Amino acid sequence: MFKITSERIPDSQVLISIDVEPEDVSKAFERAFRAIANRANVPGFRRGKAPRQMIERLYGKELILHEGVDLLVSDAYRAALDQTNIFPIDQPQLEFEPDIHEIQPGQGLRIKATVPVRPEVEVGDYRSLHLESIAVDVTPEQVDALMEFYRQRLSEWTRVDRPAKMGDEIIADITGVVGAATRLYSPAGEALVTTGEGEKLYDLSATSYHLSAESRAFAPGFAQQVEGMSAGETKGFELSLPPDHSNPELANKMVTFTV
């Protein structure tokens, strides 16, 4: 058995003092020696049968000492936590009296463990706090708008066999060229005659696009041009970029689109 005392110290810590009797110290060192002997390969002896002097000469007394202290600390610290009902939040800092390197046969050992624990919190008079409720007026229109928002957001898209219309989500290949004005389109919507090489502004493959009359994606009026197109159809058209384009150099520039 261990003699165990504890006291709370500053900074949310508890100091646990554990007195180990000389008999228990000797037993721990004997257990450590047996454990080392059982795994030691000593020429001329079966495992666990070599005499202590030979084990100490081969492996050193320090190894037995350290393993014995490890056994003592493990047993004593676990017993101390059970007895004091302390719940550490980190590893303890350990001190030994006497120093583990100075322990002599027949001596006891005192282990001092500084254990970090949860801080004690004093709850104030929170019941005296009161908040005035704030009246919020919500119109039926606002409720309907929010419900529609979530309906659109959480709904699943399904493939349909009809021309595209506003509110649809389309998958399309989209290219947009700045500086190349198309003068002639084929019946399939392909640009046959253009003026200048131009510079590709968009070159997207199988990109998702939501048709909305208010959308300014790609260019104002893009959704209206795509509306009515069917799967597999190709269409070419020209649109002007807005004057407030994020790149001032592209403001008001004409873009030739192929969808």
3D structure, described in words:
- This protein is an alpha+beta fold and 259 residues long.
- The protein has helices at 22-39, 52-59, 61-84, 140-154, 222-226, and strands spanning 3-9, 13-20, 93-97, 109-116, 169-178, 181-185, 191-195, 199-210, 236-240, 254-258.
- The protein folds into 2 domains: 3-116, 2-Layer Sandwich (Alpha-Beta Plaits), CATH 3.30.70.1050; 162-258, Chitinase A, domain 3 (Roll).
- The strands form 3 sheets. It has a 4-stranded antiparallel sheet with strand order 1-2-4-3. Strands 8-5-10-9 form a 4-stranded antiparallel sheet.
- α1 (22-39) packs across α3 (61-84) and α2 (52-59) crosses α3 (61-84).
- The chain is elongated and about 100 Å long.
- The protein starts with a strand and ends with a strand.
Structure described in brief:
The chain has 259 residues and is of the alpha+beta class. It has helices at residues 22-39, 52-59, 61-84, 140-154, 222-226; strands spanning 3-9, 13-20, 93-97, 109-116, 169-178, 181-185, 191-195, 199-210, 236-240, 254-258.
Percent of residues in helices comes to 25-40%
User: How large a portion of the residues is in β-strands, by DSSP E?
Assistant: 25-35%
The first-level CATH class name of the largest domain:
Alpha Beta
Global structural class: alpha+beta
The number of strands is 10
**For the report, how would you describe the main beta sheet?**
4 strands, antiparallel
CATH topology of the largest domain: Alpha-Beta Plaits
Query: How far apart lie the N and C ends?
Result: 85 Å
The radius of gyration over CA amounts to 41 Å
CATH superfamily of the largest domain: Trigger factor ribosome-binding domain
Oligomer: single chain
Number of helices: 5
Provide the succession of SSEs.
EEHHHEEHEEEEHEE
Total separate domains: 2
Strand order of the largest sheet: 1-2-4-3
Mean pLDDT: 85
Give the low-confidence spans.
Answer: none
Question: What is the global morphology?
Answer: elongated
CATH architecture of the largest domain: 2-Layer Sandwich
